[in-house]
Design brief:
Length: 152
């Protein structure tokens, strides 16, 4: 069972890091407000804000560091933040690899609208595809090769 780290979008990563910094600053200001508090309302409201910001920080760190794809014996488990989405191998209709963009897609049986893009780094795409083919060898695997005009 191999685990492949998701390649995250640069914009989303930057926004997540900025949000992480904002939450850390909010916790800092809440703690300083609690230290300087004179009435009970300040303790309660700032404690509540610390809890909310801590939950957001936990979710962001989990998203940034632990989002991955895991190939098990029965399914692919896609983990994004603390959400897990298992996809049984029985539901996979076809695997596509577009060499021009270096992207991998998985089409599910239900209908053609159920296409999942596998967000992996370029070095992990081939490893992931090869291991996936081992788990489901009878599934069609299509590769689009770069055309001469793409190379120039």
């Amino acid at each position: 069972m191999n685990i492949y780290k998701q390649k995250l979008n640069k914009t989303l990563t930057i926004i997540s890091v900025l949000l992480l910094v904002i939450c850390l600053l909010a916790i800092y200001f809440c703690i300083t407000s609690i230290i300087n508090a004179r009435i009970t309302v300040d303790y309660v409201s700032n404690s509540f804000l610390i809890c909310i910001n801590s939950i957001i920080i936990f979710a962001l760190v989990d998203f940034l560091l632990f989002s991955n794809y895991k190939l098990t014996d029965k399914c692919i488990v896609i983990k994004t933040a603390f959400f897990k989405d298992p996809i049984n191998y029985d539901l996979i209709k076809k695997i596509y690899y577009y060499a021009t963009e270096d992207e991998l897609y998985i089409e599910l049986l239900k209908n053609s609208e159920n296409i999942i893009k596998v967000n992996l780094s370029n070095k992990d795409i081939n490893l992931f595809a090869n291991e996936l083919k081992k788990h489901i060898p009878l599934i069609p695997y299509e590769v689009s090769l770069p055309m001469d005009s793409d190379i120039e």
